[in-house]
Amino acid sequence: MLDSLIQGILLGGYYAVLAAGLSLMFGVVRFINLAHGDMAVLGALGSLWLVQSAGVVVPLAIVITLIGMAALGWLMQRFIFERALAGGFLIPILTTIGLGAALQNGMFAAFGSNTQSLGAHIGNLSWSSWQLPGGIIVGQLPVYMFATAVLVLGSLHLLLTRTAFGRAVRSTSTDAEAASLCGVDPRKVHRWAAAIAVALAGLAGIFLAMRAQVTPFSGPMMLIFAFEAVVIGGIGSLRGTLIGGIVLGVVQALGALISPQISILAGHLVFLAVLGWRLMHVAASERGGWRAALKAVFNKPDLSRSQA
Amino acid sequence: MMPAMTVEPILRAKGVNKSFGALKVLFDVDFHVMPGEAVGVVGPNGAGKTTLFGALAGSFPVSSGAIQLGGRDLSGTSAAERCRLGLARTHQVPKPFLGMTVFENVHVAARAGAGMDQTRATAEAADILRRTGLMPLANRPAAALGLLDRKRLEVARALATQPNVILLDEIGGGLTEAELVALVDLIRSLQADGLTVVWIEHILHALLRVVTRLVCMAEGRVLAQGDPRDVMAHPEVQRAYLGSSPE
């Protein structure tokens, strides 16, 4: 039980990094990137290719992958997303679905359909563990990944709250037009936000490749997990995203205790419960709070008022 | 260098037309403002006043016509670039950055709009907050402000971009008489420092305490411009305002 709880929390760091990119794109650029999971897979397979075929050492491969993914995000915002956003509500969705499909099949063509893992290339780190008092065994890799996740999200939080760039990002995310009248160029802010978001996807992909296997078609599942962590934690707050990721990880780990088949389902159910609660909360506050809303549901409709 | 004897308009609209789809909102608007001048823009609702500001500030491209700032053609420049060239604008409905503090709202404008470094932007933001009476609220989140303070913040943020020309869109609405007096004093002191002011306002008595020239618009056209008394006495202006019959 405690063991599962710890595993779940550590897994949550991975989900949080995955979700943070999606949340950043939505919160700042107002753009839902349905290819986010596929971009994570691209990061995973890209780093694998660097290690296996180009013979690059793992740390360097990670750095190259992150820089490459950031550049990819910048370019996609500049040449694709910007235009898609100008096309209204539906175009970004269609564009990123198409992009995701193209990425999946492109990666299938380039890398084949074998499940692959970076685990074989990081020496004994993939299986080393620490033994805690009470007989609990904690893998070193999950701990390092969780620490990295907290470090990355924490630095991002500081970047957004403490720096001029961060203020430009936050002003743009509140109101791009008002920000432009303050001299902030929203297009530039959006490009850098996309660069960070796609680099985060790449980092999550690398995490996944280290702790498990990836195939070119792993993306859609990653997208669903990212969405779930974002919704559970709430959009627009990195702390919320971290909490959302941890909740998702813990629920999946505890679900696996009941039965391995229930693990993923348990995450989906908690996600649905949180989503339902949030929707009801919004509906309730529109009717003047929970009490008034419940009254309205249980009392007979007030006909005298509706006639007025 | 400009010729020493002639003074060019600092802001000029030449034959500006604007349509949103099939809806034509501005018709051949000609309009200029001299450096250091204070110009009022009046007209009934739907006259195109706010659209004119949007066109001047670069919120959207004009359909035809030209806009010049300090003799420089602005076509193709974004709102952010116009801001950095010294043209600031406030909104009728204030648009504060809700998730940020009052100080941060002004700071981002000083940093990005005026290109100041961190230290100077901090000093400038503090100075502007003092000047606009927002200093006691500096560390509050902008979302916690009431309407009056949001309007003040809107002006403060525009000032922080260090403009040569400021476009004020109905900042007087909803204010008490005492608040209006304070607002008029603030705008006069800004003008005394050399700022050029263009002000859309329905509250004429406040407007006329500041501006020396009036532009009246109706249905997307400039009906009359010039001395405020002449403009208000103009028959077309009377008709637009009072709705008397064309005969």
Overview of the molecule:
The complex is a heterodimer of chains A (308) and B (247). The mean pLDDT of chain A is 89. The radius of gyration of chain A is 21 Å and the shape is globular. Chain A has 308 residues and is mainly alpha-helical. A two-stranded antiparallel ribbon of chain A has the order 1-2. Chain A is built from 13 helices and two strands. Chain B is an alpha/beta fold and 247 residues long. Chain B folds into two domains: 32-86 and 167-247, Rossmann fold (3-Layer(aba) Sandwich); 97-162, no CATH class. Helices cover 36% and strands 24% of the residues of chain B. Chain B has a six-stranded mixed sheet with strand order 6-7-8-3-9-10, sandwiched between helices. In chain B, a hairpin with a 2-residue loop joins strand 9 and strand 10. The model of chain B has no long low-confidence stretch (mean pLDDT 90). The A-B interface holds A 164, 167-168, 170-171, 173-175, 177-187, 236 and B 57-59, 78-81, 83-84, 88-89, 91, 95-100, 104-105, 107-109, 111-115, 118, 121, 157-158, 160-161.
List keywords for this structure.
heterodimer, A: 308 residues, mainly alpha, ABC transporter involved in vitamin B12 uptake, BtuC, 13 helices, 3% strand, globular, B: 247 residues, alpha/beta, Rossmann fold, 2 domains, six-stranded mixed sheet, four-stranded antiparallel sheet, 9 helices
